[in-house]
Specification:
This is D-xylose 1-dehydrogenase (NADP(+), D-xylono-1,5-lactone-forming). It catalyses: D-xylose + NADP(+) = D-xylono-1,5-lactone + NADPH + H(+). Keywords: Oxidoreductase. It holds the Pfam family GFO_IDH_MocA. The protein is an alpha/beta fold. The protein folds into 2 domains: 158 residues, NAD(P)-binding Rossmann-like Domain (Rossmann fold, 3-Layer(aba) Sandwich); 175 residues, Dihydrodipicolinate Reductase, domain 2. 32% of the residues lie in helices and 22% in strands. It is built from 12 helices and 14 strands. The strands form 2 sheets. The protein has an 8-stranded mixed beta sheet with strand order 8-9-10-7-11-12-13-14, with helices on one face. Strands 3-2-1-4-5-6 form a 6-stranded parallel beta sheet, sandwiched between helices. The longest helix has 17 residues. The protein is globular. The protein starts with a strand and ends in an 8-residue tail after the last helix. It binds NADP nicotinamide-adenine-dinucleotide phosphate. The site of NADP nicotinamide-adenine-dinucleotide phosphate has 23 residues, from helix 1 and helix 4.
Length: 383
């Protein structure tokens, strides 16, 4: 058996998701039945201090020879780093990803990809020019469950898919939990429900209706969006979207479909226990419906109810996640690097851009703008 292809990661930022992702990277791939690729963490950088980066590496139990840097520019100069995981707030993705690409590093950048579609196009253009790999880190798409559900849709098991409803809502006392400075509500950090949580509702709508068609049959949806703002900062706290896709699966498409993508800080998808309010996602076709239990970003339970079956006759299937589940997207990055691919077939550049355009349009319809310095295409800009 040939030895696994090994990818050397650099971690840019040391916040909550950087820690979760890094711990997942370090899990033994055999625990998820993977043997063709593996990951090592060779460096991490913090914009606050080198000590913070050292602490992060220790907290994640990274190898003792992993390098700690007190700035992002130092990290991207490290010749041992193959790919950088960008885990800063959305406001910083464009600047940080440009920094990495211009230094010749491949990039996996957290969601939302950038603050707007123009920035997404610019980083893609830069990756193309530099012949580098670039992907938005929408980890849910790489779950075996997501891949299985997409295949069922493509194979026509649901019949013609006419509607997908997806909700990813939090249920927080926003004032008490996030105040005015936290990245979830701070406009300077591109805060708001849409870019942070709504992206997962959109992910389910797009991966079921759009991605399941052959690339040349996919058509961007028309968009109707409603936003309500958090009075203290102006960030969107409730966003509801109605998308009409002119083409829908299975191919060849014979009909349109609606996607209803919801997100809300004030009320939750699950007010109590998951079991009482399932499902968070409903994929509805003429032959049956797939229901996926939330949370939309890390689902574990799902079921298929064929038309004619009683709701209670169909059991929920529980998928196993041996860790947090972020390693599946990392495995895809490794395979793309190994095979010399600049983008992933599971979430290609064009689809990330169409989703960013959808969010741009919802914001445009509702007069939702971020400060110019985080919407700009200028680079470099000090944030
Ligand atoms: N995939 C997922 O499930 C998931 C979950 C949560 C978040 N996310 C995404 O990951 C990104 C980071 O989220 P997070 O929850 O990890 O945030 P966080 O805990 O606040 O961490 C963000 C990190 O970014 C760095 N940073 C650089 N400039 C900053 C600034 N001006 N303000 C705040 N932080 C700054 C800081 O690290 P240093 O001081 O070390 O530079 C900070 O620790 C967001 O884009 C978010 O949407 C994804």
């Amino acid at each position: 058996m040939s030895s696994p292809y090994t990818v050397r990661w650099g971690i840019l930022a040391t916040g909550g998701i950087a820690e979760t992702f890094t711990k997942d990277l370090l899990l033994d791939p055999s625990s998820r039945d993977v043997s063709d690729v593996k990951h090592i963490v060779v460096a991490a950088a913090s914009s606050s201090s080198v000590d913070r980066a050292k602490q992060f590496l220790a907290d994640c139990s990274c190898p003792s020879d992993a390098k700690a840097y007190g700035s992002y520019p130092e990290l991207v100069k490290d010749p041992n780093v193959d790919i950088v995981y960008v885990a800063t707030p959305h406001s910083h993705h464009y600047q940080n990803t440009m920094l990495c690409l211009l230094a010749g590093k491949h990039v996996l950048c957290e969601k939302a990809f950038t603050t707007n579609a123009a920035q997404a196009k610019k980083i893609i253009e830069t990756a193309k020019e530099k012949k580098l790999f670039l992907m938005e880190a929408v980890w849910t798409r790489f779950f075996p469950m997501s891949i299985h559900i997409r295949k069922m849709i493509q194979d026509g098991e649901l019949g013609d898919v006419h509607r997908v409803i997806a909700d990813n809502s939090f249920g927080a006392n926003v004032e008490e939990r996030w105040g005015t400075q936290h990245r979830m509500v701070n406009m300077e950090l591109a805060g708001g429900a849409l870019l942070d949580l709504g992206i997962y509702s959109l992910t389910w709508v797009f991966q079921c209706i759009y991605h399941t068609l052959p690339p040349d049959s996919r058509k961007a949806p028309s968009v109707l969006g409603s936003i309500s703002k958090y009075a203290k900062t102006g960030a969107d706290e409730k966003t509801s979207m109605l998308l009409t896709f002119p083409a829908a699966p299975p191919a060849p498409s014979k009909h349109d479909a609606h996607g209803i993508a919801l997100t809300n800080f004030r009320v939750a998808t699950f007010p109590n226990k998951h079991e009482l309010t399932r499902p968070a996602i409903r994929i509805q076709g003429t032959k049956g419906e797939i229901q996926v239990d939330g949370p939309a970003y890390r689902p574990r339970n799902w079921r298929f109810i064929p038309v004619g079956k009683g709701d209670g006759d169909v059991e929920w299937v529980e998928a196993k996640i041996p860790g947090h589940g972020m390693f599946w997207e990392a495995d895809e990055c490794a395979r793309c690097l190994r095979d010399g691919r600049s983008e992933s077939e599971f979430l290609g550049w064009e689809e990330s851009v169409v989703i960013m355009e959808t969010m741009d349009e919802v914001r445009r319809q509702n007069g939702q703008k971020y400060p110019e310095k985080i919407e700009t295409l200028d680079y470099p800009v000090e944030l």
